[in-house]
Every structure is written in structure tokens, then in C-alpha cells.
Amino acid sequence: MTGVIEILSPSQVARARETGALVADILQSLKSRATVGTNLLEIDQWAKEIILGAGATSCYVDYAPSFGRGPFGHYICTSVNDGVLHGLPHDYALRDGDLLSLDLAVVLGGVAADSAISFVVGDARPAESVRLIQTTEKALATAIATAGPGVKLGDISAAVGEVLRGAGYSVNTDFGGHGIGTTMHQDPHVPNDGRAGRGMKLRPGQLLALEPWVMTDTDELVTDDDGWTLRSATGCRTAHSEHTVAITEDGVEVMTLPSGR
Questions:
Q1: Which end of the chain, N or C, is surrounded by fewer C-beta atoms within 10 Å?
Q2: Binding residues for a divalent metal cation 2, per the UniProt record (predicted)?
């Protein structure tokens, strides 16, 4: 986090919309290409080619926060099965039924956007994996529906936590959503659980990356030897969904929607 809470101008919000569409388009393209046998390093290479081809800049390649063993050195986070956050692309070929989470952030026109999707690879549809994904997507939709000018940050956290806990999952609040703007990670931190009525009031022009994530039977994380990939402590499956949204004068707008929508 930078300690900065930016209020973007209307022209910057318009640029965020363009950045968000690029992020969404890349994620959908990668999802369509990720099949049984696809290597995570191929996905990273595809992301690099599209990002650079669009004249955008990766937020990850030089990313070196205090909690990682930086710099990250890749263009996208690829988290598989029990991996949930900051998955470092490595030599792994996807298998039928793998649960893959892709997390992508880029800067275009001086404004960043950040989004994540989770999906099952191949033809298998493990019931618990599908339920995990659907729960994070429902929590994300609830967070977006809750956000707006004058809404307190705790209202969003409480709404997300209610969905996740209501589905029977425990919630880790160490990592969650965050402010975003001309840089990827800014204040405020947006935990995936909290108390309604608490925290700062949201203002028009603020951008937030809202990102519910959950693990099947634990709220504890462990870090891989690569210094980056965060996994469930029990080896259970995980899922992660994220959108960048802008607080507007009369509500909220999702920035990370595909350009065709």
C-alpha cells in the first residue's frame, strides 16, 4: 500500500474504463485458451504478448512488496487448486478438473485496473470447486451492489463476509481488496469481512479493487518456496474473483468488463 487515497478526475475514470476493458479482454482470452495440457508459463507468455501489444504496462513484472520475494518477474498470477493468491507462473501443465485462478493488473494511459477470475479447466466439474467459484462471484456481486458514494468501507466488508460465511467458509482478512488508481495497490485496505457502519466513507472518483477469495476448509495460508504463491494451509481448493470499480456520483461502475459489453 502507498498510504495514498486518490480521487480520480472524470478523464482518469474514462481511462480506467479503457484499462479495465483491456484487463477483462485479456482474462477472457486466456480463459478460452487455457485447456488441458496448457502450461502456466504459456499463459504468462500470452499475457505478456497481449499487454505489450496493447501498449500497456504490467503491474507485476517489477512488483516487489515487503511480503513477496521480489521482483515478481511475470505478467500474470496463475494460482492452481490449493493456490489462491500471487501464484507465480511455473512449469506446470494444466489437468482436467484443475481450478485455475488468473489475477491480472495493468496500467494503460496512466491508470491501473485489476481483476481476477477462477474457473475449472477441461470437462470435469468438481462440485466443491464450482461452489467455491460461485460463492466468490456472489460475494463480489454483493460487494458491488453495496458500494456507492457515502457508503462506509465496513459496509462492503460486512456484505462480503456475510456471503462467504453464510456459505460455510471461514474468512482470512490478511489479504483483500484495495484502493487503486495511477498505481495498483493503494489505501484503503478492503477486508473480506468486517463490521457495517465502520471505516471511511467512499467518495466519487475513488477506484477500488474488490476481491473476495475463499478456501474450502481453512482460513490459514502458507507460502510456497518460491516466496510468492499463497496456498491453503490444508491443501484444500480455493477460488478468487475480483473487479475494479469506480465510485460515481450516484452509485458504482464496474471498470473491468470486456470491451464487447
A1: C
A2: 114, 178, 211, 242
